[in-house]
Design a protein that fits this description.
Length: about 100
Amino acid sequence: RDAESTVDELTRRTVTALSGIALPEQSAQRLAHSLWVSIAARELSERQVETLQSDMQLMLTSLGVAESNAQLVAAQVGDVQAAVGDRARRWYELF
């Protein structure tokens, strides 16, 4: 249930950020793929989540989304991953 509400919030923030922006087909596909990874990936490391957030923010700003809105979406990607991810830290990540 917690994951559902965080995904709903990601959807809301993304729609708000992209309101009024025309997406080229290739950009729309890249965005859809990043959102799918954000929601479906269960085994991402902390570094991979950070990279996903950074990529999302850069993609949105390159599309003309305001920096503050892009940051909100990227932050929500991290929240979604915290809710859906079930990967325990590996022993070698503790150092």
